[in-house]
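Project channel, design review

CF: Before we commit to the Pseudomonas endophytica constructs, I'd like one complete example in the thread so the newer folks can see what an input/output pair looks like. Taking rRNA methyltransferase.
RD: sounds good, go ahead.
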Amino acid sequence: LSNCNLHQGDALQLDFATLNAAPRTLRVVGNLPYNISTPLIFHLLKNAELIRDMHFMLQKEVVERMAAGPGGGDWGRLSIMVQYHCRVEHLFNVGPGAFNPPPKVDSAIVRLVPHDVLPHPAKDHRLLERVVREAFNQRRKTLRNTLKALLTNDEIEAAGVDGSLRPEQLDLAAFVRLADKLSEQAPKEPVAD
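CF: and here is what came back for rRNA methyltransferase:
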C-alpha cells in the first residue's frame, strides 16, 4: 500500500489542510464511532475541496438521514448540509450478526463524493448553515416562526419560499435562497464557523 498513508490521532482535531494534499486527492475511510460520526462529517465537509471521496460505516439511521429527501422525517440539518457538499450513496446495510458481539443497531456503508461544482451554491455557506440550524431547531414550527430572528416573513416570501411551510418541506435550493436573502442584509451579529 505505497499510495496509502494512515494518520493516527483525533480526527475531530486534525487540520486536513496540513496533509498538503492536492485538490480532490484525499480518500477518507473509516468505521466511525457512532457518537462522533456527525461532528466528524461536518468537520470533513469544511475540507471538501481536498477530498476525492469518503467511505464510512455508520449507524444505518445516520446514513438514512444523510440520503433522505425533502418531505420526510429524516430530512434535516444533516441531510441538507451533506447533500450541499456531496453526492450521497447508501451502498449497503450491515446487520448486527456481522459483529461479535452483535450491536443493538444496524449499520450501513455510505459513500460521500464531494461535488466538483456545487449544484446550488450559496453566497455564504456559513449563512446557509445558520439558516438550516435555526429552521430545524424547532422543526414542527413554520418557517416564519423558526426564522423570525433572521428573516421577516416578507423576506422569506421574497426568496420564493412560503413562510407557512415547515422546514422539512423545503428542498436544498429553497434553503440556499433563504441564506442568500439573509446575505443581502447588514450582519446582525458575526457568523461563526
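RD: helpful, thanks. Strands lie at 26-31, 51-59, 86-94, 107-114.
CF: DSSP finds seven helices and four strands in the chain.
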